[in-house]
Amino acid sequence: MSKPVLRVQDLAVTFTSFTGGWLHRKERTLRAVDGISFELHAGETLGIVGESGSGKSTLARAILGLIRPSRGRVQWMGEDLTGLEEEDLRQKRKQLQIVFQDPIASLNPRMTAGDIIAEPLWTFYPNMERLQVDERTRGMMKMVGLLPNQINRYPHEFSGGQCQRIGIARSLVLNPRLLICDEPVSALDVSIQAQIINLMKGLQKKLGLALIFIAHDLSVVRHISDRVMVMYMGQAMEVSAKTAMYRRPLHPYSNALMKSVAVPDPKLARAARQESWLTGDMPSPYQRPQGCIFHTRCPYRVKRCEADVPALRRMESGDWVACHRAEDLDLAI
Ligand code: SF4
């Protein structure tokens, strides 16, 4: 097998805040991402799922260096990005790009579609000929399904789906090798979501991109991913091949999430939701449970789960799980 293009090792991000006013000032730490490790190959898609507050978006930003991690390493093509100076990191971002969630809010309303797409070219290649930039921009518009003659239109003249196409064209204009999509379709109508997902799939195949796809909609992740990582309170609970994850997940939390996957038939969907036993909210990130972080919501917990932290370990299948009882639980969907 080829070498991974991206290697994330024990990555952690903590945020510090203060409470209690001047006299009784207390420092508190939020562990938004807590020891995430995984590898990604060219042409591969890793889906990342989890409830809101699980640390998915923070992880994405830490991989790109938009947030400095407090621990761990991000290696891109064998080079450690976490030790780079700001300018070197900025240069690396030509190869590592992101597509944001809200397509309309993420575009500058005062710039034309053409200028939005071309802006990264002006930034990284200030001496590039105007004609060349124009040609590349029109080519990108065509590639994402926009008409090149829409180049001088403003974002408000496009639909939400078209705005996301502009965002995708902008993220690809520098010819990156890794694309991180952070909930790229959650603000769009269901009918448009499928078009954008199919577009991304096609572009990935054509360009050989490594893709990280973050979403809370599990059916969307299922459609596009090769492997899926399930996150809970900043930690990876499971990293498994897509088919295994959706048929027989290894971790109780994955099982609960997979059982709540949207089913098109409303009757079946109701039954699926009833089957999903996940209740209650995630604990406060400032009061993290001891032992297994999921034990306060896990119906399979045993005494050991309250004291011992389960390490993320590799199973015979090649999938990874952080659960003491992974061998003896049958969590088939
Ligand atoms: Fe549940 Fe225990 Fe496994 Fe945690 S380690 S998921 S509490 S069975």
Give a structural overview.
This protein has helices at about 55-65, 85-90, 115-125, 130-145, 160-170, 190-205, 220-225, 240-245, 250-260, 265-275; strands at about 5-20, 25-40, 45-50, 70-75, 80, 95-100, 180, 210-215, 225-230, 235-240, 315, 320. Helix content is about 30%, strand content about 20%. Helix 6 (about 190-205) links the parallel strand 7 (about 180) and strand 8. The chain has one domain (about 5-95, about 175-320): Rossmann fold, CATH 3.40.50.300. The longest helix has 18 residues, at about 190-205. By secondary structure, it is α/β, with parallel strands linked by helices. Helix 3 packs across helix 4 and helix 5 packs parallel to helix 6 (about 190-205). The strands form two sheets. Strands 6-7-8-3-9-10-12-11 form an eight-stranded mixed β-sheet, sandwiched between helices. A four-stranded antiparallel β-sheet has the order 2-1-4-5. It binds iron/sulfur cluster.
